[in-house]
Known about the structure:
homodimer, Glucose Oxidase, domain 1
Amino acid sequence: MRVLALIVLSSFCLQAHGQSEDEKMIKTIFDEALLNGQAYENLDYLTGQIGHRLSGSPQAAAAVEWSYQLMGSYGFDTVYLQEVMVPHWVRGAREQANIVNSKKFGTKSLNIRALGNSVGTGSAGVLGNIIEVQGLKELEKIGKKGIEGKILFFNRPMDQTKVSTFSAYGGAVDQRVFGPSEAAKYGAIGVVVRSVGTVMDDFPHTGTLRYADDQPKIPAVAISTNDAEVLSKALKDDNNIKFYFETHCQMLPDVLSYNVIGEIKGTEIPEEYVVVGGHLDSWDLGQGAHDDGSGCVQSIEVLRLFKQIGYKPKRTIRAVMFMNEENGLRGGRKYAEKAKENGEKHIAALESDSGGFSPRGFGMTGDQSEIDKLVSWRPLFEPYGIYDIGKPGGGADIGPLRDQGTLVIGMEPDSQRYFAYHHTDNDTFDKVNKRELELGAAGMASLIYMIDKYGVK
Amino acid sequence: MRVLALIVLSSFCLQAHGQSEDEKMIKTIFDEALLNGQAYENLDYLTGQIGHRLSGSPQAAAAVEWSYQLMGSYGFDTVYLQEVMVPHWVRGAREQANIVNSKKFGTKSLNIRALGNSVGTGSAGVLGNIIEVQGLKELEKIGKKGIEGKILFFNRPMDQTKVSTFSAYGGAVDQRVFGPSEAAKYGAIGVVVRSVGTVMDDFPHTGTLRYADDQPKIPAVAISTNDAEVLSKALKDDNNIKFYFETHCQMLPDVLSYNVIGEIKGTEIPEEYVVVGGHLDSWDLGQGAHDDGSGCVQSIEVLRLFKQIGYKPKRTIRAVMFMNEENGLRGGRKYAEKAKENGEKHIAALESDSGGFSPRGFGMTGDQSEIDKLVSWRPLFEPYGIYDIGKPGGGADIGPLRDQGTLVIGMEPDSQRYFAYHHTDNDTFDKVNKRELELGAAGMASLIYMIDKYGVK
């Protein structure tokens, strides 16, 4: 790319036309975020100095303390901790898996990671014949006779033709979430799930499973996409091969943890609340950079930007670092419960939990009149590449607020790279681009500004 | 990010509504690109097996042969080479630079790279006092007295508040392109330019300079953004410090090279041509992955997709790998010259030279009626995240065709990451996401399909 084209391209140059006060304010917000933003260095600290932070872990406690101190240092009106008991799942020692005596590969070790909340196999491991299926529906066809005593291998990949990778994820993740208990129903002794990711590589994607109360809990692991192909080939070659895996994960007693809340009190309607948040916990792999360190530092940045540019909100604005989104949602539920208890009227909540990529839009769930109102603001956001406003959306942690009539909104960045890193050792700080993270934070601050100023009704 | 949100988000799921034939065809194009695309593995070969490929280099010759064979292997109707003489600039041996005897840093070595087309200093190097300026305009104020015998340091950064980084690039790159001859006009002995990039790091960004015919040619180098800050601090501390740099680059005699052209002959109006292209040459740093290996493999993919899905274009469609975009534009000029000579009516040309990132839009230059026609197709592209159609744009290589009345169009992906890698050792294959590259290729193929089917008038 070279000079000539730029004479033409420079007409892209974005400037505040100075037409409306809102255009000016939004331009001020973006300029501050892009010139003096602190989200990126905050994420560097969270990911580099604290690292991954699964609920109940020492790192989760460190992240609570860090975000509490950080918001305090920014001089928000109130910063406090909200107690919540969280599950404490630990991965434990070594995880290993082998194909045993395959004609094609002999005995070959494969890349696996226990699924979150799974029981472990213990040192004995699980050894058995393994059968490949493409989804939950096949189990009934195969029946107890075909499944009992075997390991089930769910191998349906994400649909790469979906432009939204979240849609593709939604179409494949049922195997990971419900697969283990569905398999147990037919007498399976273990479950292997193809990693729910968009890339062919050697990184298993962990993630939560849900055990049904009425079924035995059998151990379950994710296998890397490359090794899912290896295993599938081995099975085509010889469907009597055995599969062995060993995990030492276990669920310990619940632990006291916290949602971390920073607040700027409203000047005119303090009894109305607007929440912006992300989740502080992450899986115990990588650094939880995109999931969801990005959403946390962006949410804190929203309030910091308001203070920095001297915007005093009419309503009370809260940045909430939710705890335990990944394997329990206890923080999100606790926050909604307390909001109800305290009679706090939450008019809107915005969550960023789709990665720190270039912002594209806002999805939402609420009354049609509220949605129409936000959609009417689209011209203010389009100059910043945020054009897709009003499709259905929300966020896991703010979902429980919806029952109180709160308009729930999800920040929607470009989704192409998210599931290359999601829930893996690869979700690290170096995968985050500074400008993309800052544009997201500024887009969120601009929406919160509009909601605060005009309300949602 | 977790399951709950996805029940909501899955409404994002994109499907061909089967309403119109064009919607169906575009869905077919995207599905084929995302499921069986070959752009990514082709880029892997070009960047990994051939590497960077400056005009006149052995690697440029290898890239010509590779793209010629590749398009032949896809069975395009015609594949041929178009001769073009190109400049042959070589970087030569070691490049080094030091601050000499600074109070703050003592003698400290800095990261520099010669600017493309620059003369070298030879082993003697250039040693002198150095003065910092923020742009070309300052030179007149300082005047010959202040500049003569000194080294000029152009240190104006890119404007990070521009949302389009191409716009920010356009606002800073004049220092690199015109700085050396402007400085020579006032008797400067050398030029150091702050790297034109968006990231603070240690990678100098090379790029072309233009020597004025009426000025002595003085050597010029780019300095990394981090070291630009170091040098600036050293100067604030002591404006009498000396700066030393040494380069061994030189311009050799022109070399015979080629544009590489693959063609599918039109079934109804073969005498009308539609071009899709990128440039095959790159700078001699990194691998030229985003600049512009991506545009080359995407352009080849457009024709491959047409053959794969069995679309037989009405008009003659050409994929053109232009040679020498970076430091001469000889290929682009030669192609237009030959098109005129042969009386080939080019109705439209699309260039991809802004990186292999998620596609966002198409910029264009042409008659208003043509632009209006393409803008009216926006609803077909929005489901794929391509929403920004009709702003001014184009491409360096296809620019010369504009004089023949051709509608020139630039592929415009998300721009946030491009100038983190542009013209550096960092422009490597691992910075390219497979789905982003494929979505770009499919978007280009879809636009070429519409232009072929309906024309532009």
